[in-house]
Protein: Phage portal protein
Organism: Apilactobacillus timberlakei
Amino acid sequence: METISVEVMQKMLSNTMPTLVHNRQEYKHSESYYMNKNDIVNGTQTSALQEMIAFNSKDSNALASQKDLLRHADNRSSSNFHQILVDQEAGYIATKDPIIDVGDDDYNTKIKEVLGDDFSLALNQLIVDSSNAGYGWLHYWTDSNNVFHYAVVPPDELFPMYADSLETQLKAVERIYKQLNTNTGDYDTIIEYWDANTCTTFVKNNDGLDYYDMFDIVDNATNDVIGQGHVYEHNWGDVPFIKFSKNIKDKPELQKYKGSIDIYDKVYNGFANDLDDIQQTILILKGYGGESISGLWDMIKKDKAIPIDPTPGGGNDTGVDTLNIEIPTEARNIMLNVSRQKIFDEGQGIDPQKFMDNGALSGKAIKGIYASLELKATTTEKYFRPALAKLIRAIMQNAGIPNYQNRNISQKWTRTAIQDDLEVAQALNNVKDFTSKKALASANPFVEDPDIELENQKDDIVNSDGFGNQQEIDKYSQDK
């Protein structure tokens, strides 16, 4: 068995690390926006107060903080538009499991059992990861009992290597992550190198890399563990990682609308700063007769008055004025609304306010609101379909299903959206005479699993007259 050497792995790591670091930075930046930690909160974007102070301080030796006595508030509240847009699409596509059909009911049942109850959650996570990184990764393997498993891998841990061909054939995967060493209490950097047949593991140390023994070595005769090694033979004949691309360029969704989110944050926080600062009262005293400014507020509280000395020469230039902040409310409201609209237009999402502002919408109007989201979801589905098919073929390979490589795999992805169920039911009723019962059950908005629904209908026929009516069952089966 040929394994990759430490020297080759070190050289490969030095060549791939710059790209991996760049991809990780992009992913972490998008993830911070997804967690509602935008640039304005992280300090990488100047606030409205900072920009105003910097502007007022130009060409002056005075301290910036002294240039504008009215401005003190520095609010930094970020908006979670990115999380709303990403979760909208994930919920729209992945709330329900795609219906998989490989042309055999028994095989379909076996595949559904392997995917398990949490497959929609894994698919949801892949959509979130691909939105933040441009792609998501899924790893599959079998345990010692040949039970098939799969899990989503953080996209910033992987670097794929492809064959030198026009087809994007995955040749190897380099995975880098940190793992707590329970012996030292420190975190070790682990590097895994996966190819079509084996996985070789390394650990980073002060001198570079060294092999890392983490796999059990089992005696085939006794089935006992006799040691640990750094090479694992998976023998899939393919790299057991699947890439779920978000778009043709594998680019994060945030790049489409980040500028509009930053503008919204800056205008919104500038507005909040003005509301905070407007509560401060600045008095302009002309002819003040007191001895010190420090005792002014005590005098106002006690005497309810401010002493004013007459202007020498009998002038009228005495009194008390207030200095106020002027807030351009209308202009800011317009800018906030325009920025908000641009965010949802550029992100191809649905502004929740559209449903709040329209209490009763027809089915056609609802479809119109979902049009932009549907276009984005269709593109995502197009890139996810080949990846999901690859996962299904791996499941069939492990289950020993014949002709797994060439078997046709049908996928039906169900959207989860606000809809007029009455209109859908009326449409199904109009086409029931020339549509199969399975198609009707699949399209019925009140049915979650069409196969269970068909079985329930068959039971209804059997139990309708209290006897087993085989003639009706045969007729029902023929109608399907």
